[in-house]
Structures are given as C-alpha cells and as structure tokens.
Specification:
homotrimer, UDP-N-acetylmuramoyl-L-alanine:D-glutamate ligase, globular, 7 strands, alpha/beta
C-alpha cells in the first residue's frame, strides 16, 4: 500500500496489477491516483477501481472524471456506486440518468445497476462487479450472477473494499472477466463457509479470511453461479 | 471515515451525528476538524469529541481551542484527558487548575476528573464520559457510574477511541446523556462478556466486537450502574 | 502513533524509545522522520528503524540517506532490505555492492545479508535483525540465530513491521543487542505457539498476538537460538 505519486508508478512498474481504492482520500491522492492509473494504462497493465463514496466532497468526483480515459480493467462497487459512476462518465441514456436514484447508499439492488454495469464494461472493455446479496459480474456481453456469501459481510468495515485486492491478485494472471468472476466466486465461497462457523462480525471476519486462504481452485470453480446474456 | 474538510461537512449533512477523534493528526486535519465541528454545530447535529493526546505537539492544543465554541455533544476521554480539556477551556477554578496533575497519562482515576467532567458538561450542555475502571458519565446535573468491562480493554489499541463511534451511533437517535449512558453500558457489557470467554488481548478483541453486536437493548439497560447528584 | 514532526519529537521526549517504520510514507514524513530520529539521537534515546520498501519511489531513499548520521539503535528488515540499506550507506566493499542482488523482494536468505548486517551494526554501534526462516541478530561482534516462528507469519500483512514495535519496547529497558535478541526470541516463540493452534492467517494472527501477551521471561529466554562469532 503506497500513498505517493512516484510510489504508485513504481508499484505499477514492479507488478502486474494495481488496485486504486478511493475510500479515504488524502490531499496527495489528487496526484497519486491519476498518476498510478495513467501508469497502468500506458503500460498495458491491469488496474482495479473501487469508486467508494462518489458524492462525498468534490475530490472524488474530480478524480473519477480524470480516471475515465484510463479505462479500469475491473470496476467494483455496490449498485449505487456503479450507477453513479456510469452516470458521471455519461454512459447512460439521458432518460436513465435523469430517472434513476443517485447517491452512495447501498439500497439499490444489483439489478438496478445491471444496465450501468453493462455500459461501463462496454466503455472500458474490461469487467464490472456489482456487489449485493447476489453479485453481478459482466464484461458487457455476458452477465454472471454469483451466489453465496453472508449478510455478515456487510457488518465488516471494508469487506467490499477488500475484494478489490482479491480482484487485483486474480488480474495479475487472468483476463478481466475471468479474474472478476473467479475472485467474486472466491469471496462468496469464503463468506458462505465463514457463516457456517461464525455468528457475529469479528469472529466472522477471522473465519472469512481463513477461508479465503483455504479455498482451492476446484472449490472456487464449483461455487454456484448463473450465466445470461447481457 | 473521511479526512478532507468538505468531506467532513458532507458527512455531517448526510447523517445525524459525527465523531471527531484526534488520535493521529495529519496536516489537513487543521482544516477538517474545525470545519466538521462547525458544520455539526451550525446544523444542530450531534458530534462526539475524543481529545486524545492533548499535550503532544502543538496542533492538538490549537485545534481544541478552536473547537470550544462548537460545544461537543459528548466528550469522551480518560481522566487525564478530561482534566486537561477542562483546564484548556478554562472551566476549572484557578486553584483547581494550578493544583491538579496534567498530561496525557491514564494514571488519574475517574474521580480525579469528576469536577472537570461536570464543568465540561455545564459548558457544553451535553454529556461527558470519563473512561476508567468504573466509567463516569455526567450531564452536569447527574453522575452515573457504569460498571463492567475488563482490564483487557486497556490492552487493545484504540479500544477507548472506538467507544466514540458507539457514542456517535447512539447520539443519532437519543439525547446526549441518554446516548452517553447507554453506549457506556453497552461497551461495559460487551467487555464483561468477552472477558468471560477470552484471556488474552487478540481473542478478547474478537469476542468484544462480537458481544457489541449481540447485546440487546434489554441486556444493555440491565448493565449495573449507580446514579448520584453531580 | 504520530505523524507530525513536533509530535514525533514530543514522543521522544516523553518515552525511552521510538520506532520509525517507513512502510507507508505521507508527504509530511519528509519532515517527521528525520526530526524524530534526530531528537532520539541527540537525546541519547533508543530508536528502531524498519527501512521498508527501499527502492519504491524517491522519498524512501532520500530519507534513509538523511537518517544515516543518527545511527539507529536497532535496524530490522528482511535480507534484501538490510543489504539495500548497507549498500545505500556505503558500508559494503565495492565488489560486494556491485555483485549482490538488490531490491525489496524477500527472496534473499538471511545468510545473504550476514555481512551487510554485521557492517550495519559496526557502523551504528547498535544491533541489526534480519528476518527470515531463521532470524539473524547481530551487534557486529556476535551473531545469534533465533529459531521458531511459522511460515504463516509471512501471510500476515505487517507482521515483520510489527516486530519493530516489540523491539522498541525492549529497547526502553535493555541495551540494543539484548533487546534485539530477546524481542526476536519473543516473536519466534509466539509464532511457534500460534502455529500449534491455528492453520490459517487470520486465526493465526489472533493466536499470535495472544501468545505475545502470554509469554513469560523464562519462556522467552528458553526459545532456541545458536550463537557464533560475527
């Protein structure tokens, strides 16, 4: 985890993928986030974007506007965040943009963001993950609904944000859609298993991270999902 | 959790209470902390102050002086911090201020801070929580002593600071004194229960957060407390 | 934990040891880190340095060059970091410096850093800890190899960095080499014990911190180590 502009560029140069999370902005991020995204884009390396809290303050909006040309390999957010990002990037029809709810709450179901997710994926050429009770993953052509997980995941601060790290790990060695589907299945499997042994948030978090570590490729591939056309 | 001035103001506008903790100051907080407190004060919304580490460096003192007119709804600290804040805000008699120990250590018992807590509550019109072996909560008229908890709570970094978050949650839907008494009881109940199942800090922390989650309103209301006149 | 320059100086004045970790640099650290190291050096107090990530960006290199005259009481790093620091401070023979691998990876074994660690300890007059499967600790005259720990320690973000805190605690009340050997034994003992009860990273972390808390002086002293001349 780095905070300075040239350190972001150095991480891009040293690795195969980088994750930019906008949850807790510091002033220096005004430089670090665009510099890192540009470095990844220019080097043809994967980068994952979590547009947390779009609408809180002005810097998030400014940064997300700047990031548009760098086309994130994978975007992950809840339904409201995905809709807000697609709207900010003017990827939705005018009527959709006017009629839809906006904001950073998580009350929208993933289906409310289906069109926005598909539009984002069409624009970026990558994948989009909409987190919800059933997660929606799309590359703009195919939509995968990934089952599993637990309601306790929403009781852990940063649980959604942390998925960005798992997405980036997969993106080091797989194409955007494969990485997005596999890491979402991995996350859901770990959530399902943790909920089998823990009934409150802190012990759930411990069990969840343990299960992320224990899951095998075969088990992840067997996690339930449904596939449909976008 | 936000760090930028306009984001602090946005959180105030979006919610019913905000918590300002001064534990780990960054330069931008020189703007963010007063801007957020002012926004809460001007909007008539609750805000919780934890004056951590008053006396370390110059910015904490400067910020706490600036915060005085915004009258925090609830102040929480250990005895030394409460005494130091009441002294900084010149709420203690001259003799008291001169005769008392100062600093950020936690060696003072809560009774050493009783007068300072009452004076602070008189000034703010809100509530003050002094954390100690038995916690002291006052609105300037009544003093509640809240029992329970565990010595292991002092072995967890940020355990006292985290109570500010619980205080702010209660303050979203209750008056200052009710919120302060209820959240302190909630914290103590969770500590008592966690100590029944864990004997070392890390497993205690997991159990403590789990018990914060599990406690019901009836159980919290039944946590032992004593009431006296201020 | 503080971030501002005068707060670093205040912590030095208030305590007996301070720990400077360079893992996640913010712009203000350009002032805070040298100011704090200088304060400790000038006051004759212990300070511990963890030169994390030397080679990522330019500020780490600049800061580590500035820190050289303040001679850290204890340096801790993995083999690559220790070699990189000794090279940056020009403590290795020209041939060694040219022939050795550099960087921030952890692929070098501790023996690859033996000469660099001894050279660093000669220069600082303090102790150096090289973390690896078997840890190497030296004061430039004697080399101790400390056994124990667990491979799961490398699966916990910040596990190595956290040892710096334990080193600093010991350095408050012991000379550099005693503090370095004892805290490394303490860490290894806790790792061994945690691995006996946990098989995945998150439950291991909980068990590890619990065992750090439980270990007695006698048990720490009995943790296996081998002693040789430097």
């Amino acid at each position: 985890m780095v905070y300075l502009p040239d350190e972001g560029e150095a991480l891009v140069a040293a690795g195969n993928a980088v994750y930019l999370n906008m949850g807790t902005l510091f002033p220096i991020y005004e430089q670090t986030i665009p510099a890192t995204a540009k470095a990844a884009h220019d080097a043809g390396k994967a980068w994952v974007l979590d547009p947390v809290g779009l609408g809180i303050g002005s810097l998030r909006t400014k940064l997300l506007e700047e990031l548009k040309p760098y086309k994130p390999t994978i975007v992950r957010g809840n339904a409201s965040e995905i809709i807000a990002l697609a709207s900010l990037w003017e990827l939705l029809g005018a009527e959709d943009a006017l009629d839809r709810p906006r904001g950073v709450d998580t009350t929208d179901g993933v289906d409310a963001a289906r069109e926005a997710a598909v539009a984002l994926a069409h624009y970026t050429g990558g994948a989009v993950v909409v987190s919800g009770e059933v997660d929606l993953v799309t590359d703009g052509t195919t939509v995968v609904r990934s089952h599993g997980g637990s309601g306790l995941m929403s009781k852990i601060t940063g649980c959604g944000c942390s998925q960005g790290g798992v997405l980036a790990v997969y993106a080091t060695c797989a194409d955007a859609f494969t990485a997005a589907v596999a890491s979402t299945a991995h996350y859901n499997l770990a959530g399902t298993r943790a909920a089998a042994v823990a009934t409150a948030p802190a012990s759930f978090k411990v069990a969840f991270i343990d299960e992320l570590y224990r899951a095998t490729g075969e088990e992840i591939a067997a996690n339930p999902m449904c596939v449909e056309e976008a």
